[in-house]
Amino acid sequence: MQHTISVMVENEFGVLSRVASLFSGRGFNIDSLSVAPTNEEGLSRMTIVTRGDDKILEQINKQLNKLIDVLKVIDFTDGSGIEREMALIKVTAEDESRAEVLRVVDIFRAKIIDVTPKSYTIEATGNPLKIDAILDLLRPLGLKEVVRTGAVAIGRGAKGWKG
Amino acid sequence: MKMNGARIMLECLKKEGVDTVFGYPGGTVINIYDELFSFKEIRHILPRHEQAGTHAADGYARATGKVGVAIATSGPGATNTVTAIATAYMDSIPMVIVTGQVPTALIGNDAFQEVDIIGITRPCTKHSFLIRDVKDIATIMKKAFYIARTGRPGPVLVDFPKDIQVAMGEFSYPDSVDIRSYKPTVEGHPRQVEKACKMIMESRRPVLYVGGGVVLGDAAEQLTTLARNLGIPVTTTLMGLGSFPGDDQLSLGMLGMHGAYCANMAMTHSDLIIAVGSRFDDRVTGKLATFAPNAKIIHVDVDPTSIKKNVRVDLPIVGDVKDVLAQMIKVTDKEKVKVADFVASLSMWHEEISEWKGKHPISYKSSASIIKPQFVIQKLRELSDDDAIISTDVGQHQMWTAQFFQFNRPRTLLTSGGLGTMGYGLPAAMGAQAAYPGRQVITICGDGGVQMNIQEMATLVQNKLPVKIIILNNNFLGMVRQWQELFFDKRYSQTCMELPIDYIKLADAYGAKGFLATKPEEVESVIQQGFAVDGPVIMEFKIAREEKVLPMVPAGASLNEMVLNA
Ligand SMILES: Cc1ncc(C[n+]2csc(CCOP(=O)(O)OP(=O)(O)O)c2C)c(N)n1
Ligand SMILES: [Mg+2]
């Protein structure tokens, strides 16, 4: 089962490689990983999308917590979080397909951010499943290039991650 | 007062109470060595190989419970420490390893003797630091020692670029350390402890399954009290030997692949396993599917990742083993009547166990013509001091030591359990002897592994470290040969050490003394003569060449499927 985990880490030298090598060294999967600083000085937040049964997820959680630079690990899989991802999509758009691309962009509330006579470049954001869906619709029209950020996630409700 | 970074480093070590370091000089640590030249508060021991120096720091740490310290230069010096760091990591040994690094401006340029030692050791260190400013040395060192010794201990590497050793700064050592992302759980949850005690009182076939955590956590006393108060039999892992007196009635000895029949049977038939500071390693559990099929499991460990990693656990207790055991003693002390009933109810279980003990005790066929290795171990036990420290190398001799020495005290067995590093025994003994100049320190080695760090003979002689080196010489890489005999049709591929070595001459060449025994009747006198020498000694015993370590649970078999005599 797929899990989306947030990992709060000290913004220390080598912290990304510690997390990444933990996953590779112990044979855990990473479907996507994104990382950036937070509003708090010295603290970065990683969002990792991973897969495994309960036992593996328990180990991932504990092993991450064991890293000295990890402050907190949150698993959002129980529906307690909201996930968003952004994709930049370069799609072939000539003659009759130009209108079809625009229709899809409109339906998904995406944006055209670059135009040429032969292509559109689209910016789409949403739940990762929504990104999958727009890609499925655009694929028959000719995908030239796709860049995805990987998911980021935040907890629902009024509380921040510290509770 | 301003001083250079190298001096600040030494002041930090002094503040941490370090009295001995093991290190090897080179270009990127030459400034540290220059400071050391006039720094008399720290004793520096120069090994003949950085791997050995780092093993020595490990042996020092295991014997004393303090943090061991090793120093190496960048590049090859640093990579030479890697095996020893991994050895310490697998057995959770507190160490700080300081490596020189090329100047900050050159990092990443493939400079002379540059390696990414932090990258190389990332999977086998508890944590690591690169010092990037002279201002940070003291806080980093404070953190490094704190991380190394707290929680589940482990090696911490500090990479120290040369330009920062030269840079000038103020020295002030922090009094305390607070790492917001590192707060190991020390106290076991009282409710979990109560539940555990209840489960114990309801059990009829309980076993305490004890690992190195009890030795590292200095909880042998609490363990012994609890086991005796409740009359619960105790089996230990290789790393746990010494945490419970081996000659106690309740002792089942070691369990697992080369464990005692009674220990493995007790685990298999138990209804409650109380695991304390142990981690259900595959050498201990055998085939997981058939491991302790009827047992509930209580698992006490300071490291949450150890719990439920390999086996299901009914009651986890995260916490320092000493604290949790002390709490258990308190809780059960309050229920004297219940405890008395419980102890009485175990009599059937004890009977069953003593039947297993009687049926297949750890034993061997003695011989009048050829030296049996087990006999040597028994004689060593008989003739050595009660507080002697024993290190082993890795192989058959290690298992014979575990089976026949009967360790009674914690921190008297130093052995590479998790990584199984050949070459560990001699340098680890060197470290222990440096810590305890007045105690008897003995290393029990095979003829294969002793060669892997034999150069340390020079260090022993130079530093007047009177380690007694026992070589059980079967002229084979015996443990591998045993597997070849049992599972590969006696195809002894590359396990016969054809060249005989004259160890007496070898000892002589280093300025030490050597003795040789080839017949059983010589064993005792060689040991006595060796022990009488006031300096390092090699005692070589030519043993039965194809003796096997038995019993044995073949890899992947169930614990109760032991090969008893093959
Ligand atoms: C560094 C290293 N290399 C290889 C091994 C694999 N190994 C385990 S035991 C053993 C044989 C050891 O032979 P010896 O030191 O003579 O001890 P014996 O088993 O004969 O007592 C070997 C090669 C190891 N554990 N460590
Ligand atoms: Mg041998």
Characterize this entry briefly.
Chain A has 163 residues and is an alpha+beta fold.
Describe the structure.
The complex is a heterodimer of chains A (163) and B (566). Chain A is α+β, with helices and mostly antiparallel strands and 163 residues long. Chain A has four helices and nine strands. Chain A has helices at 15-25, 54-66, 96-107, 128-142; strands at residues 2-10, 32-37, 43-51, 70-75, 81-92, 111-116, 119-126, 143-148, 152-155. In chain A, 25% of the residues are buried. With 566 residues, chain B is α/β, with parallel strands linked by helices. Chain B has 23 helices and 20 strands. In chain B, α13 (282-285) links the parallel β12 and β13 (296-301). Chain B starts with a strand and ends in a 24-residue tail after the last strand. Chains A and B meet through α1 and α2 of A and β6 of B. The structure holds thiamine diphosphate (TPP) and magnesium ion. Thiamine diphosphate (TPP) binds next to α18 and α21 of chain B.
Q: If helices are DSSP runs of H or I spanning 4 or more residues, what is the number of helices of chain B? A: 23
Structural class of chain B: alpha/beta
What average pLDDT do the residues of chain B reach?
Answer: 97
Oligomer class: heterodimer
Order of strands across the main sheet of chain B = 3-2-4-5-7-6
**Count of beta strands of chain B:** 20
List strands and helices in order, with pairings.
The complex is a heterodimer of chains A (163) and B (566).
Chain A: E1 2-10, H1 15-25, E2 32-37, E3 43-51, H2 54-66, E4 70-75, E5 81-92, H3 96-107, E6 111-116, E7 119-126, H4 128-142, E8 143-148, E9 152-155
Chain B: E1 2-4, H1 5-15, E2 20-23, H2 30-36, E3 43-45, H3 50-64, E4 68-72, H4 76-80, H5 82-90, E5 95-101, H6 117-121, E6 127-130, H7 137-149, E7 155-161, H8 162-166, E8 168-170, H9 190-202, E9 206-210, H10 212-216, H11 220-230, E10 234-236, E11 251-254, H12 261-269, E12 272-276, H13 282-285, E13 296-301, E14 315-318, H14 321-333, H15 336-345, H16 347-359, H17 373-383, E15 389-392, H18 396-404, E16 413-414, H19 425-435, E17 441-446, H20 457-462, E18 468-473, H21 478-487, H22 503-509, E19 513-517, H23 520-532, E20 537-542
The structure holds thiamine diphosphate and magnesium ion (MG).
Magnesium ion binds next to loops of chain B.
